[in-house]
């Protein structure tokens, strides 16, 4: 947006100009919070803004003539910058002229030498007054004090400018009056009008009655602004009809030409060549000078011509890039179109040489958008991802349209700040954990790990168990997980025979706001240990008694006596069972199949065989170490089932095999018997 104010020069300090908040539609209460500031290229701050009300007032009185010199329109340009969000407004102040300057003449008095023989109608150029005001406040007319010999007329040059001339109205007589004192008055059109006077002293001479005359009243020339010293601008030429010294002409700049221009240019007094003297340090495209041609007569006569010099611009200024505002860092979730920076790009050259094109590299998620005149906004054009690129070096290239063009570059560092846009990530969706049963309480089982590419709290991951049940009990009664590193520990001993496998989920959650999470499924497989001995299912001993099997008295060979059946709750090789005869009352009568547990006769029964037999069977698994169980089977040889079963605690068959205890008893008894016999023999010998 843009707003234009008009203000008269010399307005006193504190005077109200307007209300910028009201004029631009801005809430005045937000000015301070939005860090408003006024930007201007002027060296002085002429205006103030009240941060509370938005009132715009004069900070320092403006002197229009000092600020804008001879420009017809005097403008002050300000930019109002607001942040959060970033906005730019342009303010233009038109400084209105007041009639605060009186016309003035360059010299305190002017002298004119006039030959006495001049005829009425002779003309003499009078000096122009200067008035720094413009328009109607500038010089409007000249008057001359009353004199019978002279009157004043206004003349117009070829470019339309007017100047006063002193016209001889009545012939002079030096012998009667050698000097005439006149007063030239310049008046402006202000209200009230102001004026300035200068004495004009006319000395009546007796010689040289022709003044030099220029070929043109106005000379025009054009030079490049970077023309070196000594460059010819133009050559003026005037002629004088007089002869001798009265016809010799010397050229110079008129006293009304400013001292700056007289230092910038030189004029050769004899040839009339105007050349460059030094650097053309001017901002105005058109320079105006007055050249005077004066003869060398005893009473030198002169005339003036105007020289207009047009300064042609060359492309000698590169674009100037200024960072007015920069927002860095910016969050990675910034939407496309977010304003990052405000740039001011200015080229001091006029015309095409001052027009600028601006660009940044195409491979960046940013773009430049033109804002107000000479301003560009750097905005995001795509999505940002700090995890891929954490910052950008953005090179702004500004090139003017001159020939050859001049390029300027400026680099901005825009940092991307992190937001919590990445959840924790596990390396796999599931994992398998194998644990042996009968584990220790607090045993380490497994460690899950998730990564989060975000920074700080957004990337700090904590772990927890998701609520679930295992075998009807809460998961927390079986396991615990470390909040910091994801280590999983057992809170109880597992029993393969009761629970062979289960699964649960571990959740990884970051510390961002809002927090993001992910989960991994953990499958737990419990490995079997040989912790169960084989269980005898058949035959069954009741109350500690021996199981009895009845076999026909004359059974044939390979007769199936019984089959020992056992089971092992363990798994795999821990449950592989083998059957062995640990003890048998007659080892030649029975055999046991090691894999099936079938107890069979090895031969046909004989009438001489004992009726009762006792067999001890050992059932052993293949665990490491192996576990075993035993069962005692009593075998009764009978053709019919007796009404009462005999007692198999002491076998009715052949004597039991000697064991170590029995051998010790027999040896002890033999030793005692030998000693007793030896004692009896000793007594007998003594008696004899």
Automatic annotation (TrEMBL):
Q: Where are the transmembrane segments?
A: 663-686
Q: What does this protein do?
A: Potential calcium-dependent cell-adhesion protein. May be involved in the establishment and maintenance of specific neuronal connections in the brain.
Q: What is its main location?
A: membrane
Give the protein's recorded name. PCDC1 protein
Q: Mind listing the GO molecular function terms for this protein? A: calcium ion binding
One biological-process term from Gene Ontology?
A: homophilic cell adhesion via plasma membrane adhesion molecules
Which PANTHER family does the entry mention? Answer: CADHERIN-87A (PTHR24028), PROTOCADHERIN ALPHA-C1 (PTHR24028:SF153)
Q: Where is the Cadherin domain?
A: 6-105, 106-214, 215-321, 322-426, 427-536, 561-648
